[in-house]
Amino acid sequence: KVLRLHVCTMEGAEWLEEVPEDTTVEKLKERCLKHCVPGSLEDPKTVTHHKLIHATSEKVLTDTKTVLEENIQDRDVLLLIKKRAPPPLPKMADVSAEEKRKQEQKAPDKDAILKATANLPSRNVDRTVAHHNMRDFQTELRKILVSLIEVAQKLLALNPDAVELFKKANAMLDEDEEDRVDEIALRQLTEMGFPESRAVKALRLNHMSVTQAMEWLIEHADDPTVDAPLPGQTPSEATAEAGASSAEVTAGPSAEGGGEEAKDELTEIFKKIRRKREFRPDPRAVIALMEMGFDEKEVVDALRVNNNQQNAACEWLLGDRKPSPEDLDKGIDTNSPLFQAILENPVVQLGLTNPKTLLAFEDMLENPLNSTQWMNDPETGPVMLQISRIFQTLNRT
User: Fold this and answer.
1) What whole-number distance in Å separates Cα of residue 185 and Cα of residue 170?
2) How far apart are CA 140 and CA 145, in angstroms?
3) In degrees, to the nearest 5, what angle opens at C-alpha 83 toward C-alphas 80 and 88?
4) Which residues of the chain have pLDDT under 70?
5) Which of 121, 176, 265, 337 is most solvent-facing, going by the fewest CB within 10 Å?
6) At what angle do helices 381-396 and 337-344 cross, to 10 degrees?
7) CB contact at 8 A, 47 and 29
8) How many domains does the chain contain in total?
9) What is the pLDDT of residues 136-149, one digit of tens each?
10) Residue 119 within a domain
11) Of 17, 50, 82, at which residue does a domain stop?
């Protein structure tokens, strides 16, 4: 069977080719090249440098197959196209020039930067300085809180309702003590058969996660120290202290009994609040650092200085151990411009007469990680914001 095929070239030439269906694609290409490029077949590479494409299917036809095998029909359109020549390989000179250009565009290293900027005047923009300024702010803020606590205590002691106010505050702290262990989680573990004291320890070690606490209990079931109290904590003493505090507050003398009696009661309440707000180290961090060979007291001191951050505490233990734990209890110079500016601020003055502000200061002093919740509190947040603004303003001048 003879097929009539419509052939086109990229130059715009068009014609009809009549070929038997058993003709190979290579033979068809030769006939097309004879028609459009006379004398081109003298170079044997001419045929291989061209290809035929079926216009409808956009398929490149294979030279060794026949027209029938390529499923070409009568009156189909074919395109004769010259293949693109492969890009020439770059010369060695071009390669060297390209490498040189890349080297010129490469970012300079530290030595090159220092050499180029050696004659420039030095400016105090060292990142380590900024880091130390932030560290100084944290240290200074702690000193400010220590001094503000003393001022707030004196102001609140003048309030005729101070004793009643702090009885309520003490009761709030008792509630915090009771809520420290998730009762639902504790019940789930005790119902599984675990002893209550051991379940409490597991929950505290695993941030109140029942699943992780259960895994810990199973893993340490045969551990001889499984029932030992956590480092820095004595649960029985804490429970007894909380009960005694509540009892003392309930049965405490009334403010109506006289000024001295009320003052003594207020002093006792202050002591109880301070004792309950003592720093609580992260048990996991304590255990991890003690396993490195550090003494428990040193570990607790390190975590207290570094806000319960294990990595920072480890660096403190391995370094010069500054600031020392004793530095954390020192207040700011009450005659300094910074402290005077803070006390003269109306928002701070008003906040110091609120018992909740004193509780916030005590809490942030011993547990700095809780500062976020006090910053977001509608009563204590404005006071903390003013202290921060005053510090930043005076630090820039």
Assistant:
1) 26
2) 9
3) 165
4) 38-42, 123-139, 159-163, 165-182, 207, 230-279, 328-329, 366-367, 369, 396-397
5) 121
6) 140
7) yes
8) 4
9) 566 677 788 888 88
10) no
11) 82
